[in-house]
Amino acid sequence: MTQKAVLIISTLDTKGPETLYLKEKIEGLGVDTLLMDISMRGDGPSSADITPDRVATAGGSSIGEISVSRERAKITNIVIAGASRIAGELFQQGKLGGVIGLGGSTGSLMATEVMRSLPFSVPKLMVSSTAALPGLSTRYIGTGDIALFHSVVEISGLSNALKNVLDRAACGVVSMTQGVVTPAKNEAGKAIALTMLGPCEKCASTVRKRLESKGYQVTGFSAAGIGDRAMEEMIAHGLFQGVIDLAPGGVGEHLFGFMRDAGPRRLESAGEAGIPQVISLCSVNHMTPRKSRYKPEYKDRPKYDLDKYRTWLRMSVDELTQVARVFAEKINRAKGPVRLMVPLKGWSSVDREGNPTYAPEEDRIFIQELRAQLNPDLEIREVNANMEDPAFAQAVFEAALEVF
Which residues, in sequence order, are bridge partners of residue 125? Predict the structure, then answer.
């Protein structure tokens, strides 16, 4: 048996035989298990290693209170909080080798939320009968490094088809916990997080390669709302020692509720951790509201079609001013060094002279408001280039070497 166990998260009141079968298969492959029962009905004793009452207590309640409550959302949150706390303690104690969940809609939502509370690189596998339902898979995965296994058949009754699914799931999670796996933390040199988007990909790629040539390890994140949200979480977990944030447009997208919304914590984790940041402005002057929610005036905005699915609209001066104030509020709280890099000839490949959304005079209003709100010791560097020009990539690289 291995020293670390696989945590199995399931509801024994509805999926008891199926869960116990999975437990037996994992242990048959030479790996210890810990079974966590997140049942909320409280019907009789549980055979789990971590019982529903223990989960409820960790969440600040009791299984008795939960089982009689009619406030489903409330009791679900209690169970998730308790299960997450226990899973986190197991990880901190070095007892957790991986996690596997078993469930339908509610079970999958709860189990994957527990998984997302654990750090990046902990093996996570969710076996779900509802993985293919529209909208649910993205909710299950969110910002977590979770492998989602669509069972196809319902997790009810040990048919040969379901046994086959559970056999493969057992082999999968055991494989994820075995062998030599490259650690997430970079032991040799500094690990740097880098945000990127298609319209600033050339700059991001150039900066990454030049930093790698100096011995840095650079991890890229697509700043489309989920990748940059995950980056903030990983920074908070201590996985990086520096950040090059070329595309912080998720700040404004969150402010106005648009599609690239990166959450309320965007542009905050690095500052709180005190690690150095180089920040630029790709996509900050554009917005991506859902087309189904377009306001009438949006149709008259300057726009740029990235492709047949994605359209960027130009932000108004008033919107840019509001975003600048939020930027300043977040950056002013940074405990580490910050360099703000402004390309004067456009903030992305979309933002070039001749394109319909190019409006440098309006961008200047953003910069003026940012200067007015920032702490006096925070430096804004202007570069007479477009973000995708080689001169700007060089300026970002040089700024990075100063602070990293």
Answer: 100, 147
DSSP for residue 307: S
Question: What are the structure tokens assigned to 324, written together?
Answer: 């600048």
- Looking at the structure, tell me whether residues 341 and 277 fall in a common domain: yes
In which domain, by residue range, is 204 found?
Answer: 191-403
> Cα dist. 362→81, 173, 282, 345 in Å?
46, 53, 15, 12
Q: Residue 145's Cα: distance from chain center in Å? A: 9
Q: Where do we find the tokens 């995965």?
A: 141
Quick check: is 184 in a domain?
A: no
56 burial via Cβ count (<10 Å: 0-12, 13-18, 19+): buried
The H or E element that residue 303 is part of is strand 303-305
State pLDDT tens for residues 186-237: 555 689 999 999 999 999 999 999 999 999 999 999 999 999 999 999 999 8
251 and 378 in a common domain: yes
Pair of tokens at residue 129: 């009968």
Q: Under a CB-based contact definition with an 8 Å cutoff, are residues 336 and 329 in contact?
A: no
pLDDT digits (tens, 9 = 90+) for 125-169: 999 999 998 888 889 999 999 999 999 999 999 999 999 999 999
Q: Do 204 and 60 have their domain in common?
A: no
Q: Are 15 and 41 in contact (CB under 8 A)?
A: no
Which of these three, 177, 201, 230, is where a domain ends? 177
| Strands across the sheet containing 217-222 | 217-222, 191-196, 242-245, 277-279, 338-343, 379-383
pTM for the full predicted model? 0.80
Q: Do residues 168 and 207 both lie within one domain?
A: no
Crossing angle of helices 360-373/317-332, nearest 10°?
30
